[in-house]
Amino acid sequence: MRSAKDFFTPLAVGAPPPITEVPARPSRMIHFFDPSNEKMAAKVPDLVGTVDVLLGNLEDAVKADRKEAARLGLVAIAKATDFGEHTQLWTRVNSLDSPWVLDDLTTLVSEIGDRLDVIMVPKVQGAEDIHYVDRLLAQLEARAGLTRPILVHAILETARGMASVEEIAGASPRMQGISLGPADLAADRRMKTTRVGGGHPGYLVRQDPIGGDIHGERTTYQQDLWHYTIARMVDACAMHGIFPYYGPFGDIKDVVACEDQFRNAFLLGCVGAWSLHPVQIDIAKRVFSPSAEDVAHARRVKEAMGDGTGAVMLDGKMEDDASLKQCLVILELADRLAATDPELAELYGTTPETH
Ligand SMILES: CC(C)(COP(=O)(O)OP(=O)(O)OC[C@H]1O[C@@H](n2cnc3c(N)ncnc32)[C@H](O)[C@@H]1OP(=O)(O)O)[C@@H](O)C(=O)NCCC(=O)NCCSC(=O)C[C@H](O)C(=O)O
Ligand SMILES: [Mg+2]
After folding, report:
1. How far is it, in rounded angstroms, from Cα 196 to Cα 43?
2. Residue 191 — pLDDT band, cuts 50, 70, 90?
3. Which ligand is the nearest neighbour of the Cα of 189?
4. What is the dihedral of CA 47, 21, 338, 311, to 10 degrees?
5. What's the pLDDT tens digit per position in 62-118?
6. Residues with CB under 6 A from ligand 1
7. DSSP secondary structure of 157-210
8. I need a labelling partner for 200 at 20 to 30 A (CA). Which of 125, 181, 189, 300 fits?
9. 255-268 and 227-240 helices cross at what angle (nearest 10)?
10. What are the binding positions for Mg(2+) in this chain (predicted)?
11. CA dist., res. 123 & res. 255, Å (int)
């Protein structure tokens, strides 16, 4: 671990200075596309402005014999596309033990480093993986003459990564956030599921027997397989001032359960999720933007709390310093989203004086 006084020193001569605060740009949906898939790649220009993040995926879901095509496809797309002010360009490179990652990093930083906002690193095991990427990126940025650092996002998809999540979150000033990778994590943990995210009907609690009759009718309640993992990831991210995300929901057709999974993550503190298919974009936008009712309520609490101390009654409920702080989280998010999304600004009735 670097000493605190060295933490914000560039890791290579000529590399851009590290940032001291991660920019809180909207990233409600990280939309995955395969740059080697011509049909998907052709849709990128139309997606600009409709998604917060476009991510050119080079790792899993790209066939081994298409890895190079995906890398070069992403370079071509990044050079040819104007991403505007409100859509970020991210990539997910191959895992650090793969034969492709070195070429992924060297090619992307050299060719399109000035356009890439964030590099997602899969299967991160511990802080040492982030330290490796951190130094390599600094060297490549210096060589490419980049003036701003590319940020790093880790995917939590191994048991060891999970056990080290706090160290990973604080491993570098480049750390932008962490996503849950439920499919790889389930496999690594030897969970007995076969899905990409979401729940499982077998993971449940059952009502106690009524009148001692264990064979009688008893209600069951499906439980959230990911509660512990997401909650711990959220704590690690909050502790280090970076952003937590739910990852993929593989049942593309089940838009209802997708929305539930995304909302659970939103309520627990996540700022976004991955969209794997166009149908998931609006779900993420809806879920990860606070509702007009929540914003209106938060404003009322703020108003009622005056200088922010003490306790008041509002609609029969006690509000105090701590409930106000929660309301301020909602208002800050609403302000940030309204600043880039005129529809939300109208929905929230946002004006410069509103907050
Ligand atoms: C899931 C898919 C394979 C489905 O593709 P497809 O069968 O083509 O779906 P549709 O016929 O419904 O598609 C309709 C049109 O939309 C286009 N399309 C589909 N997906 C995308 C997209 N992501 N971006 C842009 N456009 C898209 C299709 O081309 C169709 O176009 P047209 O014919 O002109 O109408 C596919 O959606 C897909 O491959 N999605 C991405 C999958 C992915 O990235 N997976 C990796 C992330 S999840 C993961 O890695 C697990 C994680 O790491 C963990 O461990 O948990
Ligand atoms: Mg994975």
Report:
1. 24
2. very high
3. 1
4. 140
5. 999 999 999 999 999 999 999 999 999 999 999 999 999 999 999 999 999 999 999
6. 32-34, 39-40, 43, 57, 60-61, 157, 181-184, 196, 247-248, 252, 276-278
7. -SHHHHHTHHHHHTS-TTEEEEEE-HHHHHHHHT-S--SSSS--TTSEEEPPPB
8. 125
9. 40
10. 157, 184
11. 27
Q: For a ligand 1 pocket test, name from 29, 36, 40 the mutation site with the most ligand atoms within 8 angstroms of its C-beta.
A: 40
Question: What pLDDT was estimated at residue 300?
Answer: 98
User: What tokens does 68 get?
Assistant: 């190079």
- Taking only Cα atoms into account, the Rg of the chain, rounded to an integer number of angstroms, comes to 22
Token pair in block for residue 196: 């990409």
Name the DSSP class of 213. Answer: B
H or E segment to which residue 56 belongs: strand 53-57
Q: How far apart are CA 73 and CA 53, in angstroms?
A: 17
pLDDT score for 350: 87
Residues of the chain with CATH 3.20.20.60: 4-288
Q: Is 248 helix (H, G, I), strand (E, B) or coil?
A: coil
- Whole-angstrom Cα distance, residue 232 to residue 196? 20
Q: What sign results for the dihedral spanned by CA atoms 179, 196, 162, 113?
A: negative
pTM of this structure = 0.97
Does residue 93 contact residue 65 with C-beta atoms inside 8 Å?
no
pLDDT, tens only, 1-10: 788 899 999 9
Asked if 120 and 57 touch (Cβ cutoff 8 Å), the reply is no
- What number of residues does the chain have? 355
**Residue 58: exposure state from Cβ atoms within 10 A (0-12, 13-18, ≥19):** buried
Cβ neighbours of residue 99 under 8 Å, at least 6 residues apart?
Answer: none
215-274: pLDDT as tens digits: 999 999 999 999 999 999 999 999 999 999 999 999 999 999 999 999 999 999 999 999
SS3 content of the chain, % helix, strand, coil (to 5): 45, 15, 40
Tell me whether 0.95 is exceeded by the ipTM: yes
CA 352 to centroid of ligand 2, rounded, Å: 42
Residue type, 2: R
| Superfamily name with CATH number, domain 4-288 | Phosphoenolpyruvate-binding domains (3.20.20.60)
Does position 153 have pLDDT exceeding 90, yes or no?
yes
